[in-house]
Amino acid sequence: MASLIHRSGPVSRYGTAAGTGALAVLLLVGICGSPAYTGWAVTLTDPESAGAFYARLLAWPAWRLDADGQAGGLFAADVRAVLLVVLAVALLYLLPAAQVARVPGPVSQFFSGWAAYVLAGGLAAVLAALLGPAPSLLGALQDASTGAGYGFLTGWIIGIASLGGRA
């Protein structure tokens, strides 16, 4: 029976870089996209400061608990946040930067996590615009720039979280 158990090395108590990045995505979208946070960021921050701009930017993948009369129902209201999480997690696992990078280790983990979030933000925005209640190509392109900008300015958080795991 013992011969059936095979270990290829010491077991790490830390998760993979993609796994820790995925956890950070869930927390970032779950907390900063929540109705409580988005309400606070919009109403209680000074629109003329950089800190307030960043607080409102963090609320971009807003999700709701009810559709508030939006056409398409609750799914249409939350499609951007759902797509952002799904695409970011998929890209974190698919981008093989740590395995093929010329600079192995933390540098590639950081940039791989950051790049995954930039791509996920842009793709989620495009797909949400095209799947939403009033799809248009112009709206999808405009939203792609907003989503990629969100990913660029917040993806460093996912990149840092990816440093917490093994390659």
UniProtKB/TrEMBL annotation:
Record's keyword annotation contains Membrane: yes
Keyword annotations from UniProtKB, A to Z: Membrane, Transmembrane, Transmembrane helix
Superkingdom field: Bacteria
TM region positions: 12-37, 79-98, 110-132, 144-164
UniProt protein name: DUF998 domain-containing protein
Source species of the chain: Micromonospora trifolii
